[in-house]
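This section describes the prediction task in plain terms. A model, or a person checking by hand, is given the sequence of a single protein chain and must write out its three-dimensional structure as a string of tokens. No templates, partner chains or ligands are provided. The sample shown here is typical of the held-out split.
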Amino acid sequence: MKNEQIKNLLKRLPAHQPADDFTAQTLARLDEHPSNSGQIWRWAAVGALACLMFVLFGSLWFHQQAVAEKQEARRELGELRAEYMRMQNNLHELKMKQNQRLVYLGGTDQAEYVVDLGRLGSRPAARTPQEY
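The expected answer:
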């Protein structure tokens, strides 16, 4: 639109004149209703308190998670130390029994195969087919 068209449209609008006591009415209305600035500060304080509580509860939750993880790590460390001690004891026992000439044949997930040559005694190592 051109400026002249806008001016013509604005001229067509009905003229509105404020009432003679417009200022007095406005001031009276302002005096009737207390200021909302107190409510604004109250809502701001409530919002800040809610944010603070959110941060505190979040920090508490993260702290509890960290404590639980530490306890789990300590439990696993205790289990690992106990297993290490069992393995050390087994190794010590095997070293003590070295004079019995143990031979490790292998193993699976379920069993380990060891032969004690000291228990074989004087049995013949091999037989000929005629002995069977």
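For orientation: DSSP finds three helices and two strands in the chain.
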